[in-house]
Design brief:
The chain has 477 residues and is of the alpha+beta class. The protein contains 17 helices and 16 strands. The chain folds into 3 domains: 238 residues, no CATH class; 85 residues, no CATH class; 109 residues, Sandwich (Immunoglobulin-like). A hairpin with a 2-residue loop joins β4 and β5. The longest helix is centred in the middle third of the chain and has 26 residues.
Length: 477
């Protein structure tokens, strides 16, 4: 490439900067200032796209994976059961769900302290869906400059069909997203069949419409507004950052003073740094910031500006890394520290919570028994002269198979049981059973005796004995 052609390119770039909005100088806090994101290719862009397709594919496919006679992941709110493959979480086991959320939170804290906002830049649903919408926008309306020009043109057939096609694609993606999300709470086959045959309930139509509108608005129209103005994570990330956290950073010492020049020109002779002030790092940024102004909370660490700058450095024949994943200490020439108290603290808590969750998941009781006393009458003397207490037993079968349970009581001398002592409970069902226990008053040494109700069954798969007990009291006075 000749020096003249390079000068023409830079002259053209300067003309474009005069006539087109400069995101780095515009008021990016004004929601009315639209950001036109320029397409870019590079290592980090490819990684982000692949992770995006993996996470989106996982989201779309998961509700369709079968597990026995149900789907593998199903949050059954109607029956208050959360099915996650072979694990069923009942309301009594919601501490497991709390532990899972705690693990997710500390994993986010740990990763953010070490690698910065890589969650936002690579796997956040807002980022994934935004870039999917931008991809359709580029395919139907053209590259950045064409989209800007198209928006300035008066309405004609070309503009009408392109805008209509884009919004149709956005709505289709939003509808698919909404129906998939609802499928985590209502069986997926029911959702798709009933929605398209107009047989779904009003509740399903409401939630599908709501999430369709939310996806369409967030990824299509609001985009960076969500990250800059509405996402709380952008606000409290500074609490987790330190000078050894990896950020997308601009090497000011190497890049300044900025200025355009031909490829063959020696920047040192011109008194310039390596930054040619092409503004591509701004044009590819999904939140419209200029990373050369230093660390900003709007930066989501997506790495798009790194790819743009590396491509420019390649064309100019300069060393890559003017913008890179780095740390504040490294930029200041200070030795980095990987292990520091905050990172170690997050890691220890994360590891401990994972161990607690694994142990709690592995030791979930397959049976739960609740005992409710008759509070209207603590005890009574029956026709045989025995002291009788009345209870209501609730047996919860938390397994995926029906079981027969044997009931007994411990802590009493010879007693009589009034009611069935062997019952069958279907998978995932709760059996409510009223019973009475009677004892000869001669056998009772205290007015109140601690007793334990016991439920036992045999696991048909490996003949393992499963049992559960619940404490109660027997009154005689």
């Amino acid at each position: 490439m000749s020096a003249d052609s390079n000068n023409k390119d830079y002259s053209k770039a300067k003309r474009i900067k005069i006539h087109q909005p400069d995101a780095s100088k515009a008021d990016r806090f004004n929601p009315r200032n639209r950001i036109y994101v320029r397409a870019i290719n590079g290592l980090w862009t490819k990684l982000r796209r692949r992770l995006g397709w993996i996470t989106m594919s996982f989201f779309l496919i998961l509700p369709w994976i079968p597990w026995g006679n149900r789907q593998a992941v199903w949050f059954n709110l109607a029956e208050q059961k959360f099915h996650i493959f072979g694990l069923t979480i009942w309301p009594q086991d919601l501490t497991l769900l709390a532990a899972l959320f705690t693990i997710a939170a500390f994993a986010l804290f740990f990763v953010t302290t070490y690698l910065g906002r890589v969650w936002c830049g690579f796997t956040c649903p807002q980022t994934v869906w935004t870039f999917i919408f931008i991809w359709f926008e580029e395919k139907l309306e053209g590259a950045r400059n064409k989209r800007m020009k198209l928006d300035q043109l008066p309405w004609n057939f070309n503009k009408l069909w392109r805008k209509a096609a884009k919004h149709t694609a956005w709505i289709a993606i939003s509808l698919l997203t909404a129906m998939t999300f609802v499928s985590y709470f209502v069986p997926s086959r029911e959702v798709y069949i009933e929605v398209f045959t107009l047989n779904a309930t009003g509740g399903i139509y409401f939630w599908v419409a709501l999430f369709t509108l939310a996806t369409y608005g967030n990824a299509g129209w609001m985009r960076e507004i969500m990250c800059i103005h509405m996402c709380p994570y952008a606000r409290f990330q500074a609490v987790m950052f330190d000078k050894n956290t990896f950020i997308v950073g601009y090497d000011t010492k190497r890049g300044e003073t900025r200025g355009p020049r031909s490829r063959k020109a020696d920047p040192k002779e011109l008194g310039l740094g390596d930054c040619i002030d092409c503004d591509l790092c701004v044009q590819v940024c999904p939140t419209g910031i200029d990373i050369r102004n230093g660390l900003q909370y709007e930066c989501i660490n997506c790495g798009a500006c790194i790819d743009a700058c590396d491509n420019t450095m390649d064309r100019m024949g300069y060393k890559k890394g003017l913008i890179s994943y780095t740390t504040e200490n490294k930029l200041e020439g200070i030795k980095e520290k990987v292990l520091r108290p905050k990172l170690v603290g997050y890691g220890v808590v994360l590891a401990a919570m994972i161990l607690v969750f694994v142990y709690a998941s592995a030791t979930i009781a397959p049976i739960r028994i609740d005992i409710i006393r008759d509070r209207n009458q603590l005890f009574r003397e029956n026709n045989d002269g025995l002291i009788e207490n009345t209870f209501t037993i609730k047996i919860l079968n938390k397994t995926e198979q029906a079981h027969e349970y044997k009931l007994s009581v411990q802590g009493l001398p010879e007693y009589q049981w009034f009611g069935p002592q062997q019952v069958k409970v279907a998978a995932g069902e709760v059996l409510t059973l009223p019973i009475s226990v009677a004892v000869d008053p001669v056998e009772l040494s205290h007015p109140m005796i601690k007793i334990d109700f016991k439920v036992t069954t045999t696991n048909t798969a490996d003949n393992e004995l499963i049992e559960a007990t619940q404490e109660s009291r027997f009154f005689s006075q």
